[in-house]
Design brief:
alpha/beta, 2 domains, globular, Dihydrodipicolinate Reductase, domain 2, binds NADPH dihydro-nicotinamide-adenine-dinucleotide phosphate, Rossmann fold, ten-stranded mixed sheet
Length: 459
């Protein structure tokens, strides 16, 4: 922990992320009863806004987040906005000089502008304890992520860099720590001895939703698997931690990510890609992806990606971790599904099929279910399948609020450490290269379906 933050300098304050996610989450964080934070919010962007326009943006965003009037008024009392070119050292210096100590600089900017702003910071005098907050994508491959890490290391110590992956602030994902480490039941069987496979799925019904400018350059593998789903894998597969803090958690995640690689070390066979064609979702007509505004078919971007990852260590050798995410699918399915191995033996005389036990952790709605076999009704020797279900306790804050709390506390526990950001690219880079080189076929699926029919072998 580097001490708490006195001001949040939002660079790119007029952008989509700031208005739709960051400002509402900040309001909700400041609104919490146990929150005694006093943070001065300074917005900066290319828009020539006066104070009224800026205050109106905060009002609208806080209203979206159902933030109390009290929290709103306390922010409005001290906030200000400045038009600035965030790639200019002079503009940045005067912005930072105007921030009460200690500032956190949030780069809510297009990735290339973030890099240019970080380069400009080399010519700026940063107050002691300044925190830097970076969005995804962090680099575009392992090499560019390493280069950005080197640049950041010249500016502030690693513990003052928050690489945001808001999945780490999702309550279900944080619940993984409770499920695994606060129960006797799971950890002893949490290995290749008892687990057959792990599926980490993030299927959306959402389509492109006018995000071609970003998504058509990224695709499902880079957008979801390289960042979010590998982070979730790390929490599922890491070794037990002694302390739930930034050091132990991030060390454990780094260790397991270092052991990850595409299945059989074969980047061509370990992944599958597909793209949606015309179809309908819940009665809504969806055009072919390539006909969506802003899409360039020549880029051959995938909208559904699957990657089989192996973890080359004692605990997990031989267990496939299937990471899958896609758009325009029939069903919203967002979960971690742990499938246990078949029974070694079912007593003779018991009837029915003993299906493997499964633990299902669902995101939104946040639920947990343990699917298992018990004796059926009537005939006690007949097996019956049941699911022990519970809602997960909702988090105190939405995911962005949770990660912002880490930023404002100067606690990087939920931030992605530099080495792990590079490790995630190391796993994905060869697969991306194989796809971009045309070495892996692009399958198709109708919007509103479960994906290509030839893929119907998943869990
Ligand atoms: P936007 O393009 O909506 O916003 C970026 C903002 O930065 C714009 O207001 C832009 O102004 C401003 N800007 C660009 N260059 C400069 C400059 N030189 N000086 C001052 N301001 C500048 O992008 P998003 O908000 O969507 O995304 C921001 C970051 O967050 C990206 O890294 C993205 O990947 C990430 N992200 C976004 C999510 C989202 O849902 N939007 C979700 C997760 C991550 P102008 O338009 O006038 O150029």
């Amino acid at each position: 922990m580097t001490g708490s933050i006195g001001s949040l300098l939002l660079l790119g304050a007029s952008g989509d992320l700031s208005g739709r996610l960051l400002l509402p989450a900040l309001g909700q964080l400041l609104d919490r009863e146990d929150s005694r934070r006093e943070v001065v919010l300074v917005g900066a962007g290319s828009e020539d806004w006066n104070s009224d326009a800026w205050q109106q943006r905060i009002r609208t965003s806080f209203a979206d987040g159902k933030v109390s009037d009290e929290a709103l008024q306390s922010v409005l009392a001290t906030t200000r906005y400045a038009k600035a070119d965030v790639t200019s050292p002079d503009d940045l210096q005067s912005l930072i000089d105007s921030c009460p100590p200690t500032p956190a600089l949030y780069f809510a900017l297009p990735p290339s502008v973030t890099v240019a702003a970080c380069k400009a910071l080399q010519q700026v005098s940063l107050p002691e304890g300044t925190n830097l907050v970076l969005e995804k994508p962090f680099g575009l491959n392992q090499e560019s992520a390493a280069s950005l890490n080197r640049l950041l290391a010249e500016l502030v110590p690693e513990d003052q860099v928050h690489r945001i992956d808001h999945f780490l602030g999702r309550s279900t994902i944080l619940n993984l720590l409770g499920v695994r480490f606060a129960n006797r039941l799971f950890e002893p069987v949490w290995s290749n001895e008892h687990i057959e496979r792990v599926d980490i799925i993030f299927d959306e019904q959402l389509t492109l939703e006018n995000r071609a400018r970003y998504y058509d350059h990224a695709g499902a593998l880079m957008d979801m698997i390289q960042s979010h789903l590998l982070q979730v894998l790390a929490l599922v597969a890491m070794e037990p931690i002694a302390r739930a803090d930034a050091v132990d958690l991030r060390d454990a995640k780094a260790q397991v990510l270092r052991a990850c690689r595409p299945w059989n070390d074969d980047p061509v066979r370990a992944g599958r890609q597909a793209r949606y064609t015309r179809g309908s979702i819940d009665g809504r007509d969806v055009p072919d992806y390539t006909a969506e505004p802003g899409v360039d078919p020549a880029r051959n971007t995938e909208t559904l990606a699957e990657l089989l990852v192996e973890i080359d260590n004692w605990r997990w050798a031989g267990v496939p971790f299937r990471l899958r995410s896609g758009k325009a699918l029939r069903e919203r399915r967002k979960e971690v599904l742990v499938t246990f191995k078949p029974l070694p033996h079912l007593p003779t005389g018991m009837r029915g099929q003993a299906l493997p036990d499964r633990l299902r952790l669902s995101m939104g709605p946040d639920r947990m279910a343990l699917e298992m076999n018990i004796n059926g009704p009537g005939d006690p020797l007949q097996l019956d399948r049941v699911s022990l279900d519970t809602d997960m306790n909702p988090g105190r804050l939405p995911a962005y609020g949770e990660v912002l709390a880490g930023v404002l506390d100067g606690d990087p526990m939920l931030a992605v450490r530099g080495d792990t950001a590079e490790e995630c690219w190391r796993v994905v880079d060869p697969v991306l290269q194989a796809w971009r080189a045309g070495n892996v076929e692009m399958d198709e699926y109708a919007a509103g379906s479960d994906g290509p029919s030839s893929w119907a072998d998943g869990a």
